[in-house]
Amino acid sequence: MAKLIMPFHQVLQLLFFIFSCLFFVTIQSRHHYGHSEQEQFHIVSHVSLPPSLAPEAAVARPSYSVFNVLDFGAVGDGVTDDTQAFKLAWDMACQIKSAVLLVPDGYSFMLQSTIFAGPCKTVGLVFRIDGILMPPDGPDSWPRNISKRQWLVFYRINGMSMQGGGLVDGKGENWWNLPCKPHKGVNGTTMPGPCDSPVAIRFFMSSNLTVKGLKIKNGPQFHFRFDACHGVRVESLTIKAPAQSPNTDGIHIENTNNVQIYNSIISNGDDCISIGAGCYDVDINNITCGPSHGISIGSLGINKSRACVSNISVSDSVIQHSNNGIRIKTWQGGSGCVSKVEFSNIHMEAVRNPIIIDQYYCLTKNCSNQTSAVVINDISYSNIKGSFDVRSPPMSFACSDSIPCTNLKLTQVELLPAAKGRTVANPFCWNAYGTVLKQTIPPVYCLMEETNATIDNTLPCG
């Protein structure tokens, strides 16, 4: 068979013709369909490709507008009043879909008492504190026409995150030294005079909040307070104030639900965390607390008020060198209930009252006995271990004369004297009913059997 031999120049002509045809088809296809190059690939291809991720450019990503308070006239020298600049920045950020209000590093900003109000149009507003925030230095520097009960208030905010590596310095010392404060008088008494002191940061009627990574110190009164809020996550905070600073609760919640408080260090002059009336679904985990007054539910039922608290969990935490450990405190004469509370995996170090229920809470020695009380029911203590200050018993369940505590459950509770050579004190019980599921140290023989309790437990929580 004769071989077909094509001259070289004809080969080049043939290749050029094929290439031209392919190029023309591609151009015509793009022009006809009017799609992008990526879309055109799928249109002209007759090969069934496996599904793949969308191209990166097509993935929706939030684009945040940054509102630096310096751009709105803030000076940041720690002396100049920067309140107006912050309010202007807030008003602008509040109107943008995705915004960051930036408090920049390297500056100290002094703010008067201010309300940052919503609702905002922003989805996921970030209040980022990288610098230092501070109020006027004490009551004498506070403007006369401005409330002394609060400093920074966030009102009707949904979906805000307060975060950053900065510091909030409450400058509380001059407030602590007011004559009315209990440590100023003889034997803890108070003296006449004005006593209002501001909460450092308060969230009111707000939802879906995150507070993360901040340092806050020396609050004039409470450091953080959440009132009438829903959906609160607090994480990785450091809160510090002297052990003798009065009423400087680290985090206080009231009428607030769906709360998570995690991975934080709190050292102050009152409760590390305090849970007030109307709170439920609260999870507290991995807290290092103390010196302080411990982690408390209450006080509840003051002035014959009704208070309900339920579904509370405190776990995997350390309480050290504190007046109290885990505490429930109520006033006589109140109503409502505390129920479904679980304390678990908590280590005590030289705590004066590691486990305490006090239904005779009173700030003076003149509180009269009352017949009504907040019901306390279904409280669990599990794996509570460590040491206690022998000035008080390691466990105390002081329940109402008329309405006993019921369904108390203890398991793996081991508390020994902090001082070597001291004898183990006996737990104290008064009108308390419950069960020891596993032998405790010291033994709790004073709890009464549940079948002997006579109690009206019909009051619902919630």
From TrEMBL:
Keywords: Cell wall, Cell wall biogenesis/degradation, Glycosidase, Hydrolase, Secreted
Localization terms from the record: Secreted, Cell wall
GO function terms (MF aspect): polygalacturonase activity
GO biological process, one term: carbohydrate metabolic process
Location (main, coarse): secreted
A Pfam family of this chain: Glyco_hydro_28
Active-site residues per Swiss-Prot or TrEMBL entry: 293
Transmembrane portions of the chain: none
Gene3D superfamilies: Single-stranded right-handed beta-helix, Pectin lyase-like
Coiled-coil segments: none
Highest taxon of source: Eukaryota
Family: Belongs to the glycosyl hydrolase 28 family.
Name of the protein in its database record: Polygalacturonase
Species assigned in the record: Gossypium australe
